[in-house]
């Protein structure tokens, strides 16, 4: 077509007054445009089809997030940065200097004081290879490298000799209290803040530091965190960046103490304080002094001192690049692993003073400080909050920080039934730095919106926008005929919709109408994912077992949160303080004994090893391991199986010749506890140097140096013969002789058939979010999902048949009067509804062997999970639609056949 266009253009240049030639060119251009549009649609359809079944790939999620928010991607950020550069009046050097002055501290460095605490031999021990490996397991391969270009992916794939060399390097730095300059150098880039004007004042700095240096930080972070948690040095009101704690724990406290309707008859006030650029301005002297007070040991203190001192940076802004420069003696390094912990440690004295204020509750999540009170008169509430605000202001000033009254907010919730305008109460006023903190009608606490009138319109409006945005995304990537299939679209709803719903809604006091609106939004999302009309009956949708109601989500979320909180002393304090009685199902986690842990090597578990999606990769790994260790004698395979009548497991171990070595009974509730115990039994009772387990969780727990009580006691109470041991994960049920033999041995011990599930089933209490929500869905499941072998149009038709929303002449006539007739095209019946066209029309009947001749048989068919039954029902429905002249469904059938 393009060649024809060029040929006609050449002729036109010689015959510019030829009207017929002009018309011919115009027609050709129109044909080319239509063809180009068709090609674009085909290419986009192919892209959407390729995404189907590939949600395990990061590229798929990158594309989906781009479609959801095009302004929040790398290409958009780069374009916006270029706009700022070209539109700014300053020159390149002046612009880089302005960025340095705004976002980086370049004050004169000072000499930091030495360690003033007591010695701590345990913290000052040499770093072991096992600690380095444990830190490697936490590295994210998606993290960008620093200036040295060493990536986390490269570090995670190092061999044993390289890890040993890195450990020696770390110990050299550890003993001397010095760090290489490259580990203290940062490459600082910027991205524009979303929703704000493009200006150098509205940027977010991102520091890229050495991945090798961050690996060292992970090692030290693990030591300090273990020391802090072991001696309970963190206050129970400090939540941020601590294991098994979350922002939602602060929301839970506010929900129970402020939002709960039981407190509606009292005045309640919440004060959210803002520390101006807290991480950038905190003094290094305050950090080192706080570390000394916590008795972390001289080597740890020296490391932090070296970590903070003589840091350098260079700014990269679009194509602009500054020369390296030295940073000042303020601020925790942006983007570093240790920064949140160091900031938390410095604020510990503040929390102790706040805890001493009567009737004042408080919580800290990094630099987000929230104070609230619900007791006393308005005057007493004002005095209590003012006292807390003064403490925060004074303590912040002592460590180089300052509070911003303009960015801080006060929310007052009063009980005023029938109050008249003349009874307006005296406002509660809080002052900071001689300025009044503004009172607001809506406050945002860690992503949860609260309103002074007790309503939730702000939250619901944002969730509604989120649902509509996700529904538009679904319409772009799928329709009834092509694109992503049902299983993928429902995952998108869970990722983009339900995750936001369960973040804050469980902590709000929702009225009946608000709950119904939320349930309606949930149903809208799933109807969009299934390509069902909005008029789909709710009872039919519920019987598909695809989604949970708001009430079910809240119940599951609360139980899962209580279970998580019961794992830690701080979590237990929160539950007790809120008078929540909950008995957790977990056992205590303990570190592996030091003299054993330093002899362990836990190999990384490969990615993309899903038991369904990656069967070939799992089988290939099993074959490779069998070939590699076939002739090794010091190899042991372990497994566990559950007893039917008690909370106990049998653990078993066999050697490389498939001979039974040892077995034991372990009491516990969870499979991972038994799998950990099986590994511990192999460590103690055998001379194995290679221990294979098919439990990812157990292997990872050993790598994290956190195992449950049963495994810990086995290691502590028995003699360990020192030797280097590798713990290796092997895929379960991948036909590996050793793993299969260990599995059979464990099952024999509990008198179970090999082909049955040998791990915990019905006796276990449901405590995870997934377990509880799945239980609710399965309880009402009547209409099974379409078989994966069905095409997209077949899957859509299957759901339409189940929900009784499959189009028919009678329904179309009601929807479009005058355009469609309600009569049957075949037999001229007056009312051709769904039942008539599927099985009541005497002129159009399905085959007798299909068993689709009456309502009962159709109900039986649409509740079947057999693929042949589903295909028969769907094909008959599409054939009927074609013969009834339903053009949309006729097109569907044609595309399905193609």
UniProtKB/TrEMBL annotation:
<feature type="domain" description="Reverse transcriptase">
    <location>
        <begin position="172"/>
        <end position="450"/>
    </location>
</feature>
<dbReference type="GO" id="GO:0042575">
    <property type="term" value="C:DNA polymerase complex"/>
</dbReference>
<dbReference type="InterPro" id="IPR036397">
    <property type="entry name" value="RNaseH_sf"/>
</dbReference>
<dbReference type="InterPro" id="IPR043502">
    <property type="entry name" value="DNA/RNA_pol_sf"/>
</dbReference>
<dbReference type="Pfam" id="PF00078">
    <property type="entry name" value="RVT_1"/>
</dbReference>
<dbReference type="InterPro" id="IPR012337">
    <property type="entry name" value="RNaseH-like_sf"/>
</dbReference>
<protein>
    <recommendedName>
        <fullName>Reverse transcriptase domain-containing protein</fullName>
    </recommendedName>
</protein>
<dbReference type="InterPro" id="IPR000477">
    <property type="entry name" value="RT_dom"/>
</dbReference>
<dbReference type="GO" id="GO:0071897">
    <property type="term" value="P:DNA biosynthetic process"/>
</dbReference>
<dbReference type="GO" id="GO:0003676">
    <property type="term" value="F:nucleic acid binding"/>
</dbReference>
